[in-house]
Amino acid sequence: MADLRAVDHHMDGLRVLIASTPVGALGSGIGGGVELTLHNLVYGLGLRGHHVEVVAPADSLHVGERVHQIDGALQVSAQGLCREASTELPAGSVLAAMWSHIGSLQHETDVIINLAYDWLPYHLTQFLHVPVLHLVSMGSLSDAMDQVITEVERLRPGRLAVHSAAQAATFPDPSIFRVVGNGIVAERYDVQLTVPADAPLGFVGRISPEKGLEDVAELSARTGHRVLVWGILQDEVYWQRVQADNPQAILEYQGFLPTDDLQAQLGACAALVMTPKWVEAFGNVAIEAMAVGVPVIAYGRGGPAEIVDDGVTGFVVPADDIDALIAAVARVGEIDRAACRQRVDNEYSSGAMADRVLAWIDDVLAAPVRV
Ligand code: HBI
Questions:
Q1: Nearest CA residue ID for atom 7, ligand 1
Q2: Which helix or strand (DSSP H or E) is residue 296 part of?
Q3: 81: pLDDT confidence band, cut at 50, 70 and 90?
Q4: Distance, CA 214 to ligand 1 centroid (Å)?
Q5: Is this model's pTM higher than 0.90 or not?
Q6: CA of 297 to the centre of ligand 1 (A)
Q7: 248-265: per-residue pLDDT in tens?
């Protein structure tokens, strides 16, 4: 018998407070995948009748029923840090201010979902009286973060989730994480079921070494396939080097587009190619491509390899094997584009993701309260 509190809350809806990333305002694009996750959670939990509010840095876009906009100095991205990196809080930290504000909202909140990959929210978990659930946005990056994440599991078991098993596997003890996948607001994506025979390939992601664009350039140089490239040009030197190393490659940079524009252009591609060199926690672009009917051809590394249903929604090839990549591209006509969209509707819609998160919340609310 589920805990009465949990059932009761579902009757008139849970009051959910989502803490965003402190690295950038919502809408700035700095938050990367976390922004998509947040929008999708707000929409999906709202669909299921819950009341969702957001705490985010000032100048954020409006999402959900209310965005509490917090002034303060943005947090440095953890992405570039080394394993021994210390936890830093700038003077006037927006992260500290966000969590002071969250503390003051506890009396009108049933559950807090933290999306920040930062030390403070994890350490505060034991002191807040409203349950804090952490959806970890990246793989293991530093010892300090690994330790504070592990501390949460020791003091408040069941509060940790990741987007993929591969992401969990980067941490010392993968078993402490619940795998919840991710989701998108599928209604925003228009499926394109047919493309011309000479349709280009697509590459979506920050132009940065960990995304492995050089392998796609070599594919293009060897096959003559045009590749449309979307994403923030994060590393100009890398971009120049990729083109210099593959003069025959046909890479056409399309800029960084907002979701509505990206999905319309991406749908015209024959396939999306994903050649990550690091362990992508999930690979949102894989479900965005499938949502518009585009098969995904991905290296067997990280989140994307768990999203692609080999032979049904695309192909998974041995990581770093460009011959295998080329062979898979030649077979993309075998994939039913409608099946790609169907898999998103079944598995990666906002409702499907919200149901996985609500099952997680139920388990937390039903667990004996630890003093
Ligand atoms: N860095 N310190 C910090 N905190 C975050 O929440 C964070 C980050 N870097 C990147 C990031 N979040 C998001 O882009 C994730 O989607 C990867």
A1: 117
A2: strand 296-299
A3: confident
A4: 24
A5: yes
A6: 26
A7: 999 999 999 988 999 999
* pLDDT given at position 313: 98
How far is residue 191's CA from residue 343's CA, in Å, rounded to a whole number? 12
DSSP conformation letters of 14-81: -EEEEE--TTS-TTSSTTTHHHHHHHHHHHHHHHTT-EEEEEEETTPPP-SSEEEEE-SBPPPPSTT-
| Residue range 154-162: mean pLDDT, rounded | 98
Ligand 1 binding pocket includes 74 (Cβ within 6 Å): no
Using the predicted structure, report yes or no on whether residue 4 has a pLDDT greater than 60: no
Could you tell me if the CB of 33 is within 6 A of ligand 1?
A: yes
The answer for residues whose C-beta is within 8 angstroms of residue 337's C-beta and 6 or more apart is: 191, 192, 193, 194, 293, 294, 295
pLDDT reading at 121 higher than 70: yes
Q: Does the C-beta of 95 come closer than 6 Å to ligand 1?
A: no
Q: How far is the CA of 279 from the centre of ligand 1 (A)?
A: 15
Query: Is any ligand 1 atom within 6 A of the Cβ of residue 297?
Result: no
The finding on whether 116 has its CB within 6 A of some atom of ligand 1 is yes
User: Which domains are seen in the chain, by residue range?
Assistant: 2-183+349-370 (3.40.50.2000), 190-347 (3.40.50.2000)
Q: Is the pLDDT of residue 105 over 80?
A: yes
Distance of CA 262 to the CA centre of its chain: 16
Instruction: Name which of 288, 237, 252, 294 is nearest 270 in CA terms.
Output: 294
CA gap 74, 218 in Å, rounded: 38
**Any atom of ligand 1 within 6 Å of the Cβ of 142:** no
Six-digit token string for 299: 């290296």
pLDDT average, residue stretch 95-120: 98
Asked if residue 275 has pLDDT above 70, the reply is yes
Q: What confidence score (pLDDT) does residue 27 get? A: 87
Residue 42 CA to chain centroid, in angstroms? 14
Answer yes or no: are the C-beta atoms of 204 and 280 closer than 8 Å: no
Mean pLDDT, the chain, rounded, equals 94
Residue 31 Cα, ligand 1 centroid: separation in angstroms? 6
3-state secondary structure of 20: coil
Q: Token pair of 214, please?
A: 């050089």
Instruction: Indicate the pairing of strand 178-179 with strand 15-19.
Output: unpaired
Cβ(21) – ligand 1 distance below 6 Å: yes
